[in-house]
Amino acid sequence: MADKKVSKKDIARLLEQWSRQFTVFAPSKESGVAAMAEWDGKDTGFLDWYRNTIIPPKASFLPQMEEMFHFQKGEEGYNIKTPPADERSRLLFGVRPCDARAMAIVDMTFKDAYEDPYYLSKRKNAVLVGLGCTNPCESCFCTSMGTNPTDQTNVDLMLIDIGDEFLIEEVTAKGKELIAKTKDLKEAAKNDEAKATQSKKTAYDRVTRKLDTEGIKDRLLASFDDKEYWEQTAAKCISCGICTLLCPTCYCFDINDEMVKQEGTRFRSWDSCGFPNYTKMPMENPRQEKWRRVRQKVCHKYEFYPMTFDVIACTGCGRCIRLCPVNWDITRVIESVPDKAEAKK
Amino acid sequence: MEQKLRQEAKTLLEQNKVDRIIGFEPGSLKFTATPLITGDKNDTERLIINPFIVNNLADFLTGIEGRVGIVAKGCDSRSIVSLIQDNKVARENVVILAVPCPGLIDLAKIERLVGKNRDELDDITRDGDKIIVTVDGKKKEFSLSQALFDHCLACELPTPQEYDILLGEPRPPAPELQTSGQNITKLKETLPTERWEFWKNEFSRCIRCYACRNACPACFCQRCFVEETEPQWVMPVPRWQDNLIFQIVRNIHVAGRCTDCGECERVCPVNIPLRSLTREMYNMVDELFSFKSGMDKEALPLMAHYEQEEAEDLFR
Amino acid sequence: MTQQSDWKPKLLGFLCRWCSYAGADLAGTSRKKYPANIRVIKVPCSGRVDSLFIIKALRLGFDGVLVSGCHPGDCHYLTGNYRARRRIAITKKFLEYLGVEPERLQASWVSASEGGKFAEVVTEVTEGVKEVGPNRLFSERKSNGTEAKTGS
Questions:
Q1: What is the ipTM metric for this complex?
Q2: Contact partners of B by the rule of 3+ C-beta pairs under 8 A?
Q3: Which domain holds residue A275?
Q4: For a FRET experiment, which of A10, A12, A177, A294 has its CA 20 to 30 Å from that of B76?
C-alpha cells in the first residue's frame, strides 16, 4: 500500500530536501556518459531521457578506482595509513530494479567469508530510491531473471510512474522512516493504486526479450569440456572488458601499488576476466585462449554463482548486449548451450 | 550483392579454398549486424550486406588460423593490405570478398537527430542520397552528411582495390570528402592549454575496457605496452593521466596502419571522441610523408620506409 | 606562465651511443659550457627511442625531452635514424595537436665531432623549456574526474 506520491515537476524540491540529509546521486550525462553522479542541485532533465545509465550504480560502492591505503617505509617495516572510511550517507535516486537486484547479488560476495570494509562502509549507509521502468529497452530481459521492471524487492523506496506523478511505495524500514520525515508529499488518490498496477503491467509487457534459464546450471556443467562449442561461441568476441566492467553484477578488481622511492599508494580498480592476462601467473596462464575466458564468464554467471549463492549472477539489464562491439548476446548463448543429457537419450 | 556473397562464400567452403568465412549476419538488436565466423557451408545462407555492417572484420585475421574468406568494405580491405604489408597476414591465405560500400549509417547520429534511442525507431532505410527514418509511423528524411558515419564521409576508397571477388558495382569516392572532423577543426582553433584540458576531461571517464584497442585491426601486439609490468609504462588504474597516455601512445604506434575505419570511436562505451585523435594522425601521416595506409600491398609500411630528406624542419 | 623563481628545468636526453653521446663527451672534454639541467640516457641508436619513452618522461615530470642521433645517412646501423626521424616527427606534431608545448620535445642530429653543436643545442633547448615553464601536464586537477562522475 502506497500512501504518498510526488509530482514529476516537484522532484527537484524533493531531492533538494533529501540532500540536506544525504549526498544525493541521480542519473546524469554531465560527464559525457550516462551515470549516477552527485546531483547538481537543480537538474531533473534526466526524467526525460533516462532509461538506464551506462555506468552501473555499483560504481557508487565499488568505484572504478579506489585508494586502499598509503604506505611509507619506516625504520622498522612499513607505516600504513588507511584513509578514513567513506561512510557518507548516500541516496541513489532512480535505481532500476535490475540494478538493485544486481547490488543485492554483489552484496553476497562482499559479505561472504571476508567482509570488505571499503565496499560495506559505503553500502550500509546508502538509501536506494528505485524508479520503476516505463520504457524497457529491446535488450532488457529482467523478467526472465527473477525480477521485473517495477520490482520493489531490493530498494528502500520504489517510485511508480502514474502519469504526471510518481506513486511512492515504501519498502523497507529505512524507506518508511525517510518518507515519514519528508515534507510536502501529496496523498495518494483512490485510483492511484490502479494506475500503478496498469503502469507496472505495461512495463512488464514491453519486455520482449525472453530467456529460459531452466536447467542452465546443469547444461553448462555438462558442456564444460565441449571445446568446439565454446570456440564457436567465442569466435567473434574481441576480449575487451565492456561486458564485464559495465555489468552490474560483476565485481572483479585488481590491486596495484604505485611506489616512488620509499612511499606509495595501493589502489584497487576494476578488472575483467575477459582480459587475456587476467589469470596470468608466473608459471602459466590457464585462460590464455579466448574460448576459455568466454566460457568462464558464462559459467561464472549462470553456473558457479548459482552453485555458491543460489542465484544467477545476471539480472537482465541488457547492458552487455547493447554495448558489445560485436553484438555478442548472452541470451543467444544461453539458449544455444547444448543439452548433453538430451543428446544422450 | 547478398545473393552473390552467399553463393561465393558457400563455394569457397565447398571447394575447400578456405577453412573459414568471416562475414556478417543479422544481429540480435534492431539495426545491428554481427560478425559471422564459420567453417560450415550451411551457415553462409545467413550472410548479409546492409547499412549496418560496421565491424572491421580484418580485426579477426590476426587471431585466426588457416585460410579465410573475408568480407571487406573499402576501409576493411585497406586494413587487410596493411596487415599484409606488416607480414602479419599472408596474401595467399585470404580470399577477399569485396563489398563496394556506399557508406554506413551512424546510429548515434540518428539518435541525436531524432531524439530517440535506436530501439524506439520503426525503421531506417536508404533511398539513394537520402536516409529515411520512420519513427511513430512518421517518416523523417536526412542527408547522407547528417546520417552517415564521419569516417564514411571522409572515405577515399569505398571499393577495395585489393580483392579476389568483387560483389557489386565499384563505387568511386564521393566528389567532396569531409576529411576533418568537427572536433578536429574546433580543437585546432582553441588554445593549446584548452585543448589539453579538453582531453583531460574526456579521458576522465575512460574505463580502460580496451575495446578501442581490441576492435582495431592495427593493434595486434601479443603483449600490449599497457600490459607490461617490467617496466610499467602505464598503471592499470583508470586515472585520466594513464588513460590519456595509453591512447596517445596507441595512436602513435598504429600511425600509418590506421585506415580510419572509425571502429574505435564507435565501440567506446563512454563516448570519447577517439576519431578526433586517429583522424588527425591519419591526416598528419599523409601531410608529412605522403603516405596513405593500406593502399599498396607491395609497399613498405610507414615506419619501414624513408626518404633521403623529409621532416627536416623539425630537427636541429 | 607563472614561474617559481627557484624552478630549474629538468630535461631528459636520449643520446645515441655512436654519435650524439660521443659529441656530448667531446663538449665536456672541450670544456664547452652548457646548462647542467639535462640528464642523459645512452641508447644504441636514436631509432631505439620509442615514442612511449618520450611520453613516459613527460608523465614522470620531465620538463623537456631531447632526442639526438647521427645525421641522416650516417647512422651506425644504417637506417636507425631514419626510423627515429619519422617516429619523432609524428610524435612531435601529435603532441602539439593535443596541446603540449612544442618546446617540450626537441630533436637534433649531432655527430661525434660536434661538441660545440651539442652544447648549443642543449642551451637552446633549455632556454625554450624555461620559457614554457614547469611541466604541469599530468598534475592532478582538483577533482579527479572519476570520483564525482561515477558516483563514488
A1: 0.94
A2: A, C
A3: 216-344
A4: A294
